[in-house]
Specification:
The complex is a heterodimer of chains A (about 300) and B (about 325). Chain A has about 300 residues and is mainly alpha-helical. Chain A contains twelve helices and two strands; from the N terminus they run ααββαααααααααα. Chain A is flat, with a radius of gyration of 27 Å. The chains are: A mainly alpha (about 300), B mainly alpha (about 325).
């Protein structure tokens, strides 16, 4: 010890500095975990409640863990019974809307993005800005004529009407994402295609499409998630209870006095599962769609 | 040169083909343009038109009545409350979401282990429907009549009884300010606070993601240079990081405000507008006017007011964005 007396002097400060650093790191993690708990709390409540059997459901035990895992609540939420309308049918409805609407949105968005990035014409930038405006309008401002027009063309109260509505109001965001995506494809590639004698569709099929996979994934995930989660259009366009999408069915179930709250929680979980699965496995692409929504992605 | 001359004929053919392709391109985007023209601009125009008519019963009546429906709305106590609620909701939601989102982004950006796990946890509510959020948070914020439930029960168990509150059943407005001539009590309807918390829970991950993208976009050289010049971390944040994040804050404000102005699903699930219209906002009232009272003209007036407010924000933003894009090429 005495031999190494010289370097002893600065050691305590280094040590103290380290300690302080370590302490602040610890505090940092504590804060981050605390925040994570805040985000997980509702999901935790959904989970512990949905897995309880009916005998365990009482309000003063709502934070207790289930003593055994029961699927009773899910069964009731899915198949219905005892005054509750099951959500199975509405899952089918939502799928019947989401899948075609997403596919059509992707194709339209890709075509629009291709034209607006590679075939600009006088006024195309202005038109693009005017399309984008459609992304920001409060949908309340189009509800009144929407119902009348859908009724006039015989699509009111039908899933096709809902598909059409989602596709049309999806045009701005899908066009935006594809246009920004295609803007990254070098002009020279398109020119080379033209020199090779490819026409509009040839360039699209042989040059743009093969490069588009990530763009399609981003747009498909975005449209899938937004349409699955959408409520207002579903509520207004499907007046027939048998045609309700999941969000409307869940809202109805949660407003019903006849449905026990563990069943409501199970229903909420069921509605959340499809988009959560997509988020868990393809979160990166979801994030890109999210950031594109703020124009500069 | 020789090659150039030889290919002149070919190039005229190619030019023709390109011109032909231009026509095809316009034809291909035409259906979308027509759809937007009808479903966005046509519909907006129609809504604006209806709001100026006497179409206040199920029977269509397009007699022009000027701004009567608007005057009627603004004189209604209920609509005045709607406006107050919307301003309170938007203000609280916007500020909390931005600050919270920025804080989350700074935490994530501080080189922690498990960064991606934390990020995924903070962001996952964005993938969930507002209806699911509403159902879950309504139960958390149900105070319980005889015994505490939800969060109140949790606070009770944790010995934090002082945090208990009436939450979504609280019909008080605080601080209760009354101004002669205005029918509503001003300031914050307390039942709005749980709704704001749920909305922040859902959307702050979005702000975090935006700010995180911004933080990661700041070149390390700039920070290093500032540190070399003797900048403290606090000064660095105040004078370099924050100004560089300003465009992101602007984008986030636009997106959050337009979402908040049209919020419908979250409120209808959590409170249904209650207690006593304390959380009702114009989008809910518009729905009731149109689909329960069949007062189409007044519903259209509410919708037009919402649209005008959003347009005041969004149109300059879109124009500005276009200019920036043109400058950047």
């Amino acid at each position: 010890m005495s031999a190494s007396a010289a370097p002893v002097a600065p050691a305590p400060t280094v040590h103290r500095h380290n300690l302080r650093r370590r302490f602040s790191r610890l505090a940092l993690y504590a804060v981050m975990i605390g925040l994570a708990l805040f985000f997980i709390l509702p999901v935790y409540l959904l989970l512990i409640t949905a897995f309880k059997d009916f005998s365990q459901v009482s309000l003063n035990r709502m934070w207790d863990l289930p003593t055994s895992l029961s699927l009773e609540s899910f069964n009731r939420a899915w198949n219905g019974g005892a005054g509750t309308t099951g959500m199975r049918g509405s899952f089918v409805n939502s799928l019947l809307v989401v899948v075609p609407a997403t596919v059509i949105s992707c194709l339209l968005g890709s075509l629009n993005g291709y034209v607006l990035s590679k075939w600009k014409f006088p006024g195309s930038e202005t038109l693009f800005t005017m399309i984008l405006f459609g992304m920001f309008i409060p949908y309340q401002s189009i509800l009144v004529p929407l119902v009348q027009v859908l009724a006039a063309i015989g699509l009111y109260g039908s899933l096709s009407g809902l598909i059409l509505t989602h596709v049309v109001y999806g045009i701005p965001i899908t066009t935006l994402i594809f246009r920004n995506y295609y803007a990254g494809v070098p002009k020279e590639l398109v020119e080379a295609g033209q020199i090779d004698g490819s026409d509009f569709f040839g360039i699209y099929r042989h040059i743009m499409l093969p490069l588009s996979a990530p763009g399609f994934v981003v747009v498909a995930i975005w449209q899938f998630t937004s349409i699955w989660n959408e409520f207002l259009f579903g509520l207004i366009i499907t007046n027939d209870p048998r045609l309700r999408p999941v969000t409307v069915a869940l809202q109805n179930m949660s407003g019903s006095q006849f449905t026990q709250w563990n069943v409501q929680m199970a229903g909420a979980l069921l509605v959340a599962i499809p988009t959560l699965i997509v988020y868990i496995f393809l979160g990166r692409y979801f994030l890109r769609g999210l950031l594109a929504g703020s124009l500069k992605g | 040169m020789q090659i150039a001359q030889a290919s002149t004929a070919a190039s005229t053919i190619r030019k023709k083909r390109i011109n032909y392709d231009r026509v095809v391109a316009i034809l291909m985007i035409l259906p979308s343009l027509i759809a937007i023209a009808v479903f966005v601009y046509g519909f907006i125009a129609y809504t604006g038109f209806v709001s100026l008519t006497n179409y206040t019963t199920p029977k269509p009546d397009f007699t022009f009545v000027g701004l009567n429906n608007y005057l009627q709305l603004f004189s209604e106590r209920r609509f005045q409350e709607n406006i107050r609620n919307l301003i309170v909701f938007t203000g609280l939601f916007l500020v909390t979401c931005l600050l919270f989102g920025l804080a989350l982004a700074l935490l994530i950006d501080s080189r922690v282990k498990g960064e991606s796990i934390f990020r995924s946890i903070y962001l996952f509510p964005m993938a969930v429907s507002f209806i699911v959020t509403g159902v879950a948070w309504r139960w958390l914020f149900t105070p319980g009549d005889l015994e505490p439930t939800g969060l109140n029960l949790l606070f009770d168990r944790a010995g934090l009884g002082f945090l208990q509150s009436r939450w979504i059943s609280d019909s008080r407005v605080w601080p209760d300010i009354q101004i002669p001539g205005i029918k509503v009590r001003l300031m914050v309807p307390l039942a709005m606070i749980p709704v704001v918390i749920a909305a922040v829970w859902q959307m702050s991950g979005f702000c975090m993601a935006m700010y995180l993208a911004g933080l990661r976009g700041i070149p390390d050289e700039i920070k290093e240079a500032a540190r070399v010049d003797g900048c403290s971390e606090a000064q660095l944040f105040r004078h370099i990081t924050l100004p560089l994040l300003r465009p992101i804050t602007l984008s986030a404000i636009i997106v959050l405000t337009h979402i908040s102005l049209k919020t419908f699903d979250l409120i209808i699930t959590m409170t249904g507008g209650g207690p006593g219209n304390k959380t009702e906002v114009p989008s809910l009232y518009m729905y009731e006017l149109r689909f329960s009272q069949f007062n189409t003209a007044e519903a259209a007036a509410v919708a037009t007011i919402l649209l005008l407010v959003v347009s005041v924000l969004v149109v300059p933003y879109l124009v500005y964005n276009r200019r920036v894009q043109e400058v950047e090429g």
